Amino acid sequence: MLLHLASWPEVEAYLERSTGVVVPIGSTEQHGPNGLLGTDALCPEIIAREAGEEADFLVAPTFNVGMAQHHMAFPGSITLRPSTMIAALQDWIASLARAGFTRIYFLNGHGGNVATLQAGFSESYAAWSLRGEACPYRLKAVNWWDLPGVQAVCRELFPVGDGAHATASEVSVTYYGYPQAVKTADMSPKIAPTGSFADAADYRARFPDGRIGSDPAQASPEKGARIVAAAKAALIGEVRKFFGA
Amino acid sequence: MLLHLASWPEVEAYLERSTGVVVPIGSTEQHGPNGLLGTDALCPEIIAREAGEEADFLVAPTFNVGMAQHHMAFPGSITLRPSTMIAALQDWIASLARAGFTRIYFLNGHGGNVATLQAGFSESYAAWSLRGEACPYRLKAVNWWDLPGVQAVCRELFPVGDGAHATASEVSVTYYGYPQAVKTADMSPKIAPTGSFADAADYRARFPDGRIGSDPAQASPEKGARIVAAAKAALIGEVRKFFGA
Amino acid sequence: MLLHLASWPEVEAYLERSTGVVVPIGSTEQHGPNGLLGTDALCPEIIAREAGEEADFLVAPTFNVGMAQHHMAFPGSITLRPSTMIAALQDWIASLARAGFTRIYFLNGHGGNVATLQAGFSESYAAWSLRGEACPYRLKAVNWWDLPGVQAVCRELFPVGDGAHATASEVSVTYYGYPQAVKTADMSPKIAPTGSFADAADYRARFPDGRIGSDPAQASPEKGARIVAAAKAALIGEVRKFFGA
Amino acid sequence: MLLHLASWPEVEAYLERSTGVVVPIGSTEQHGPNGLLGTDALCPEIIAREAGEEADFLVAPTFNVGMAQHHMAFPGSITLRPSTMIAALQDWIASLARAGFTRIYFLNGHGGNVATLQAGFSESYAAWSLRGEACPYRLKAVNWWDLPGVQAVCRELFPVGDGAHATASEVSVTYYGYPQAVKTADMSPKIAPTGSFADAADYRARFPDGRIGSDPAQASPEKGARIVAAAKAALIGEVRKFFGA
Amino acid sequence: MLLHLASWPEVEAYLERSTGVVVPIGSTEQHGPNGLLGTDALCPEIIAREAGEEADFLVAPTFNVGMAQHHMAFPGSITLRPSTMIAALQDWIASLARAGFTRIYFLNGHGGNVATLQAGFSESYAAWSLRGEACPYRLKAVNWWDLPGVQAVCRELFPVGDGAHATASEVSVTYYGYPQAVKTADMSPKIAPTGSFADAADYRARFPDGRIGSDPAQASPEKGARIVAAAKAALIGEVRKFFGA
Amino acid sequence: MLLHLASWPEVEAYLERSTGVVVPIGSTEQHGPNGLLGTDALCPEIIAREAGEEADFLVAPTFNVGMAQHHMAFPGSITLRPSTMIAALQDWIASLARAGFTRIYFLNGHGGNVATLQAGFSESYAAWSLRGEACPYRLKAVNWWDLPGVQAVCRELFPVGDGAHATASEVSVTYYGYPQAVKTADMSPKIAPTGSFADAADYRARFPDGRIGSDPAQASPEKGARIVAAAKAALIGEVRKFFGA
């Protein structure tokens, strides 16, 4: 069940049978010459929606702009500063907790979100910890590519050049979800360089077309379908465990 | 063109022909017994996407959680505090301005956002005004129902009971966009009460099923199609004026 | 009764008979060649004080610096950023609520405050709404020129050139309150241009002497007296309704 | 010259002959059984206005609500949290600096403001210090009772029972400025207890009627006139030195 | 007992016999040609540790970076903005209060911290005062050189040239604590100039080698020992009074 | 060279030969029955100081209170909220960058800091990325136990029961640094339970004596010496690489 397509009485009824919710969270940032700016938001959204439909759990709207400061030298990228993202997470969490949700599972699509997301969880817990009261809810964040079994599929599909940013895997997932948006682009070198980065100027200097370590020309909707199938199954299992915990 | 389905080189190319972008902005909040929690985000998203496709302008991802404190007594509602929303708007605006956008048009779907959105614009301008530098971008927010000609269509379709929240019009727009989510619900009284409100407890006491002044049982996908057609045409005209200003 | 000229036992006694208070709120910003920088604070202050004296309600000190970023290119203007103004409003409201006030009526003198003021109210309510507790107080903001009957007087006095900023009406109100501060100035054109604006540089470029749409040379203390009389009577009625609600 | 009764061209002309401005800053808080809630804002306002008129310097509107957390157990008191007050000071200072003021002199009427005011100055300077740029303006805060010669007059007028809060001196100054607000009240003991305090509950427990160490029944408009005369003369000297520095 | 060298069961046991704690608080900032950058943190740390050992009270870790914006033109200086320092103080205080501490005594080593520290205390109290609840803890800040009897020793040791920053006294205290860090440097003039300052650029222009009014070439470990002995004895007395209050 | 024991001219001279600095960063939080509350701050401090002395690099004062919300149910623990810690990091980084440091290496001693530290780095970079300027400095954070070769030593010393919190390794490091603080305590079970946690109440319920997975009764100063030796050597290599990058 998608929260934004549900009515409040439907959510009220849902809360009778479960107090867990899944929140897809991503980013809007460059994903190389043939990847979509929305990749990191779309991947968890696609996976969560399919899983939620199959397993009857509630999927919140996607937190679609995240921490992407390092991509700001590429047009179309949008970032929250970490302090803003932490504030926004407090409000999302407080709102869901207010309604009675006690298990909030963030399915994350962007490595750059991980630290700020965890900091946001700690900020939320800290309010309870400093007051000396027990927090009534539990928060969890998992990257979709870290769901059990997903990496194996990706490695099988892309033994070479899956990469670290604008990966062949994530581009495939979005192509599966949005086949009308499949793009082709000349990319040179075939496999992008790897390495670390600091701010946006540094990132662009090191990774001129935006990719890190990837050859996303390999991406296809069909491969995306395989990845989504694996991720969906894994997510259902993980979510059931977490909601039941 | 949808920003999140575009690549960064596509946005770079777009910026050669236009430095304007449309941002749908809404809310995730109860919309009565048969309305979708995502109504206020979905309406501007639907309209902006159709208009953007027809008129080749860029549509950003939807700012999908807004200022909905008064709906917090209904499960499924999510709010940002105004201070958080202002911070998030600063980051969206700064990111888009960084890329070279000089005209940012927010198509708004939620009356409760209006004040905070304007405050956010002023916060953004204030940084330039206090430094004594000229701000290179212009910000504009328009509610989709205030686009020229839209109210006339709504009044014609719903001469009675369009209402002020969970309106027959907005529910129709979402039913047009998501026919699979059409819902039926007994609603009594047929037309909801009207009035003002303060916090969430006050709101729920005055409007027990969430509607204000509306009879959204009249909503249908077909009526939504007519509203969207009118809004799309109007938006194209407005946006062209704004981007050219 | 003016709060700042009262003692705390007098306020304690007042709270026995009423838990309502009126807060004049304005701005310190340019008001054209012959208007006072304090116009927007002085107008609601003058009206509220006269009304409070006649009808025995409590008038708080004036919130005298508001959201005036767009006037920063004219010396003497002082602004709060919206985020600061929202924070300050939280503290004023919390302080008054702490003392037992349950109805706080802001009589506003500045159009530029409206959005931030409403955002500030929502910020205050949101704390209660997210905690799931009922807020014990009600907040209301009304522009003095929107009080019932006031516009009619202004239109009668200034059928042409009342304008939108540095209006003949508001300048008259301050001249009535501070006849020693009546000023004359050559203004050309006689009626200032109209239009919208963004940041301070944009404002000054469009409205070189600060006025928008007005011919404030028509202002006089006598005309101000008529406006104040109308506003005072209206305010008393409005406040009684609100305090009794 | 009072800024709020001046026009912007008058301030522009003033800036040709001086880039200094005096800002009265006070508090709205209980001042015992016969003292005005506005005492701490009114005292510097009265002194600054008389001095500004005599010596032709510019006096800004009064920053009339300050840091008064310890008075919150007495109705009518309004406080800013220190963090809010620091934010507001940044905006006042930035606005005045933007207009070209380089010397901003805060005439303070509330001991409880001193720390936060200094912290606010440091916050303002820190922005320049961390950027490695020279700050173009200088900030100064002086309590009116610390102006040269003022304490001598107060001690002469009130050899016993001037006190530390709701002092006979400050009540006299307000009675001089607002003779219509002179109040009488039984106060027991005649001279209030002395000591320190923490939060509002602690303050009220130690000082049940709000006074600290004072016998303000001795206050009179005539005595206030003498204090104001001394303070005015001293302020003029101090301001000239500071503006010329 | 040093908190950071204790285990939590040891602190739990301590809380059975006392709910008071001493927090050394200082700054990391230039202290002239022969003074240590850590002087202001080390002095209260040295004194508090010796006193805590002798009198069995708990000493928290040192708050070692404070408000030093004016020293930023000298390398090695680190500052918190006042707003940051206030936020950090809230967290330290809340944490200690959460554990059951009711008397928190800050032994301060930096004049530039005083205002922000007091503002931080007020911020902490204000939360209780605005809620109308009694705050369960008391906060106190004392500069080590203001402890009873300390100034007399310093004046005796340094009848000339103790100064106001990079004082002979404070440098002596650090030389006593860290004899391996004794430094010699040519300083001209022998006694540094005195005066006030604004931002960092202003400070460096007025005090080119960082000292204010001091001749710290007189400093020695032996003199430091005498100062520490006096301060330790005084601190024990003061802390016993405060913890027992 | 320890920054806090250096003078500013010594730092100025250092900057001629290197623009890199190491900042030990830790936490003040319970470390089980025999571990020190300061463990996480002391470990990186001990290692950095020894390495800095040997290899002549500058070591800043220790950031000694970190993100420890989950330990707040154990007395003596002190936490910063993540938002506060991010603000404090901005100020430390800005101060060091202002002085000319271009490589800032945080040697971290607390797993709970990692996310907030990374978020703080991104906050710092984001300011540059959004302005479109290249950031002149680079930030790096490494946990001391992740330095090359350190884990091998720990595993050799503690093949069983090193654990995840209050580890035998970290307790050993502090015992090496502070042999006077070696403690003994009965701990049951010998090896603490393992698992994850949310807020402080949850943590204490799962890990009643504070340890996670560890048997720190094995700790000794001698074992600590071996770990420190390995970490010191590794740190010198890492820092040289980073400073030279």
Automatic annotation (TrEMBL), chains A, B, C, D, E, F:
Stored Pfam families: Creatininase
SUPFAM superfamilies named in the record: Creatininase
Transmembrane segments: none
GO BP annotation list: riboflavin biosynthetic process
Domain of life from the UniProt record: Bacteria
InterPro entries per the UniProt record, alphabetical: Creatininase-like_sf (IPR024087), Creatininase/forma_Hydrolase (IPR003785)
Listed cofactors: Zn(2+)
Gene Ontology molecular functions: hydrolase activity, acting on carbon-nitrogen (but not peptide) bonds, in linear amides; metal ion binding
Keywords: Hydrolase, Metal-binding, Zinc
Family: Belongs to the creatininase superfamily.
Protein's UniProt name: Creatinine amidohydrolase/Fe(II)-dependent formamide hydrolase involved in riboflavin and F420 biosynthesis
Species of origin: Amphiplicatus metriothermophilus
Lineage of origin: Bacteria, Pseudomonadati, Pseudomonadota, Alphaproteobacteria, Parvularculales
